[in-house]
Amino acid sequence: MGMRRSRKLCSRSLRILLIGPHLNCMKASGSLEITKEYGLQSGSIVFFAPAEKASTEVNTTAPLVSIKKCWGVVTAKYGQSWKDLRRFTLSTLRDFGMGKKSLEERVGEEAGYLCDAFQSEQGQLFDPHYKLNTAVANIISFIVFGDRFDYDDYKFQKLLNLNQAMFEVESGTMAQIATAIPWLAKLPGLAKMIYRPHVDVLEYLQKIISDHQKTWNPACTRDLIDAFTLQMEKAKGDKENHFNEKNLLFTTFDLFTAGSETSTTTLRWGLLYMLQYPDVQRKVQEEIDKVIGKSRKPVMADVLQMSYTNAVIHEIQRCADLVPLSLIHMTYRDTEVQGFSIPKGVAVCPNLSSVLKDEKVWEKPFQFYPEHFLDADGKFVKQEAFLPFSTGRRACLGERLARMELFLFFTSLLQRFSFQIPDGEPCPRDDPIVYIVQIPHPYKLCAKIR
């Protein structure tokens, strides 16, 4: 179904037109192909019609989807509640070490556990997904829950499995149709199929929170749950208070799901690229041996002397293009973007693929090429078009934590192991499975001790 070309957003009810373009978001070709197909080669704009305004139409070539009122810090509407919760979350992340030596030591310690888990496979073929996921999730778990979990902890693995199932189901075709046509989600069978994994994760997290609060001591703040609970106590009786049980649950949900899935998937892409580009893997290991050696643990200060490794990590993020449509933003006043008049209250989503794969910026935009981030002398150069964490008010809360995780986990793994595929085994595919996050197809590798 086509849309009339216009530069204005007007008020009519043509929600059915949203279906065709929106479903294309789920193709493996992703949002970059959408911008080309619908004539948005400059490609940075996607418009969203608010679900509570059932009669909203965007007469442009841009795809649309609907959104609903949300809690927490990731998808909540811009307003005082969101401001307060985001400010609190950033402050708490810093209090528990984001960007500090204390958390760096925690990540370094977890990197050691991760390497031990890889070594336990004794050089045999295995899928690295769940070991990587456990390591990354343990970092955000320490901040939110005040603890880490063993790699064979049944309850923790159940939570990680529920989280993965939620991403898969909510990114599926039926979920996208229900987003475009909200009344379909009221059908009992369809609603249960779409929302059950989401509810399962929330219920699991709610139990953790409830158990945690039973041992809460206002004089000793162990983690984010305790810090949030303290704010709830301080704000009791305040009608404008945004610190309540629901926002605690959804803030915990936001941090755990986003904080565990994105870095895990980036590392999965990273090891996949090392399998596909053994020369790159060798150069990274040579730099590790030169700067760090084979016995000392990597630290964040090393990154300043490791231009090639830093370039490789940045190129992994660029090529993976993890969240092509980034997070939802919403206009808080009438504005104009690239000639489009956008009224107040319309949600927009930056198309990060349009900059991460921009043929005008990158020499080889559709290839893995670490030299994108190196100058003629081999020194690291950050590119202005490198925006995997988005930008603006909705930029990733945990960017500094993610950078720390990627560098310390990646260098620790390549310091101890060489990754390879035995002769006769297929090389991993480099085209993504497009969920909310673009993930690699499952693959196996051998981790050989160096």
Automatic annotation (TrEMBL):
Known cofactor(s): heme
Annotated residues for binding of heme: C396
Major site of localization recorded for this protein: membrane
Cellular compartment(s): Membrane
GO biological process: arachidonate metabolic process; xenobiotic metabolic process
Key words of the record: Heme, Iron, Membrane, Metal-binding, Monooxygenase, Oxidoreductase
Pfam families for this protein: p450 (PF00067)
Gene Ontology CC: cytoplasm; membrane
Similarity comment: Belongs to the cytochrome P450 family.
Name of the protein: Uncharacterized protein LOC100145323 isoform X2
Organism listed in the record: Xenopus tropicalis (Western clawed frog)
Name of the gene this protein is made from: XB5769266
